[in-house]
Amino acid sequence: MSQSGIVSLWNRYRSVGIVYRIGVAFVLGSLVGLVVGEPATALKPVGDLFVRLLKMLIVPIVVFTLLMGVRQLSPSSLGRVGAQVVGLYALTSAFAVAIGLGVSNLVSPGSRGLEELLAGAEAQSAEAPDAVEVVLNVVPTNPVGAMADGGVLPTIFFVVVFGLGLTLAWEETDDEQVKRGIETFFDLADAGAEAMYKVVWGAMEFGVLGVFALMANVFGTAGVDAILPFALLIGTMLLAAVVHIGLVYLGTFVVGVAGRSPVAFLSGARDAMVTALSIRSSSGTLPVTMSDADENLGIEERIYGFTLPLGATINMDGTAMYQGVAAIFAANIVGVNLSLVDQFAVVAVAVLASIGTAGVPGSGLIMLTLVLTQLGLPLEIVGLVAGVDPILDRIRTMVNVTGDLAVTTVVATWNDAVDFTADAWNDGVGAALSD
Ligand code: ASP
């Protein structure tokens, strides 16, 4: 083939979205594993290389992206509405992880078929750690040491308090030089985060090969038995999403707090939900989310103009929920029972990590590396679930934007900033429940 032929072939290949190429690699790798059997496991080192790349990214991602997230939380820009919003955002994310954990504990999505697969992988959390120790260990005695050891929770803890320290210092100092220094510091973190996303996507480019190799290894070892767990994983995530939307957003917020019909809320939020499902990015969906809040749900701009952009950055209930579901999936696969303490650690890491997750396609998958590292579970799982991520990401993103709108509706209700005569509330299904 001529050189220009190769170049145009390469360009054609690159023009297909990376997640779809990974999806194809997932299917092809699985087929190769099924057909070739045991010899396909020779590809394992290629998969291992992908896993090493992911590991390399963990600490820099936490540091840069969390600093970027904490910058949004500067105390003076928040005020009373801000405190309500941030409180609810954190609370709903914690519920989302708990529901993700609860549903997957019931279903055990990873327990059928793959057990022997990663049997050799280390499962350091097999012995239940002491609860007091776990809580104490969240605070690092040496932040640099925690980062060097890849300690996820202590690193997150340090970065969050450091970021809050920076925003407070910025607000309280009159010294222009210090102010400028802090701004530069945050700007550098923003730049670092942008750069890390580029590196992540570079790693994902290699991930096309990595996922192919990992899947060839999985099916080469486990055969057809490996199909069911992935189907169960998707089903579990869907079930957890429905339970969360039903119980928290509709049951508690829309009906309980606002006293309105859940159908009305869903019809008002429909455009944003459908857009999120199709483009897999809550940041990309933001204009639609805002127009739903304004035109359909009758929420005043002074509320949604603040809560929705903030939500698209820091509130990721679907992403947080996914961490819970995937943690149980991973634990099932290596045959470990996660203790209650482990599961609390998942809630803590997932809620904090979701603050730093960018509202772009696939970022929740990278955050999974944090949760798995915290639990001492093998990072190969990230490679395994990457192939079905185009489906899981849609569910996550749809929950993410629905959560932003549900919290915005509650806060607007509390602050008398919602017009319940607006379209969605009144097109026949939208009357107040008490009417
Ligand atoms: N794609 C999601 C979002 O934009 C983030 C994720 O990957 O979980 O909200």
Major sheet characteristics: none
CATH topology: Proton glutamate symport protein
* Radius of gyration computed on alpha carbons: 22 Å
Average residue pLDDT: 85
Summary of the model, kept short:
By secondary structure, the chain is mostly helical.
Structural notes for this entry:
By secondary structure, the chain is an all-alpha fold. It has a single domain, classed as Proton glutamate symport protein. Helices cover 77% and strands 0% of the residues. The chain is built from 18 helices and no strands. Helix 13 (317-334) crosses helix 17 (389-414). It binds aspartic acid. Residues 280-282, 316, 319, 357, 359-364, 393, 396-397, 400 line the site of aspartic acid. Aspartic acid (ASP) binds at residues 280-282, 316, 319, 357, 359-364, 393, 396-397, 400.
Features:
435 residues, mainly alpha, Proton glutamate symport protein, 18 helices, binds aspartic acid
Q: What's the structural blueprint in terms of helices and strands?
A:
Blueprint lengths: L2 H13 L2 H19 L7 H28 L3 H33 L23 H7 L5 H6 L3 H21 L3 H47 L4 H31 L4 H18 L2 H15 L4 H14 L2 H18 L5 H17 L6 H13 L4 H7 L2 H26 L8 H4 L9
The structure holds aspartic acid.
Aspartic acid (ASP) binds next to α15 and α17.
